# Entry
Amino acid sequence: DKAMADLRFDAAANTIYHFVWDQFCDWYIELVKPVLSSELEVGFNETRLVAGWVLDQILVMLHPFMPFVTEELWGALGDRTHYPLITAKWPAPGANVDTKAKREVEWLIDLVSNIRTARNELNVPPGQRLIGYLEFENRMIEDMLISNDDALIKLARVSFQSVKGQRVGPTLRVPVGGIELVMDLDGAIDIAAEKARLTKALETSTKEAKSLEGRLSNPAFVEKAKPEAVDKARADHAAHAAEAERLCAALARLG
# Structure
């Protein structure tokens, strides 16, 4: 609304885009799929109604930018012969935020994102299901993991088990509420091959970082080279240093 009032139509379109793509499609639809796939699930009707209502609001917000496509979809989603989209009221939701539910969903999204990143770093196959454990007692985190087990299995391919005890050997560890969710990697990946791949990549990044460090520590280069060349060297050095740090952490996970 603020962007539209300021005639910043680019900012308004960008805001709607990120809401639709990053929140509604990327997370909300994925999280409610288990409920919508079975009418026996608790909350099926409420979830269906909320999803439909939000989609309607999205079409209303997109209409100034995509009039023909949104009008077509509006008519296809219901019998609205006498209520064309162009006459729909601009969204003005007055819902109260459930702060506890909001925190839990944000926690879940953060956890799934961290698990996906860690899996990707160690080349864990996308379809490989891992078992997650808490090594130490934390009733609140355990309850949230249990209540969100379906989402974790679907979105992160991790199934939680309430079995305590420290894990040894190669593991994938992700921070969760001040402790760690620990997943055994034995049998999930080729540990030796993964260590070799990470070691080779680490050597390359370390070599590049040292080379750039030497160039940047040379006064002749910093003083005589073009400013954009110096800036690029600094950015490349930072990128290779960060990559080396990430690869060291990945190798440490494998023991």
In short: DSSP finds ten helices and four strands in the chain. The radius of gyration is 25 Å. The mean pLDDT is 89. The longest strand covers residues 171-176.
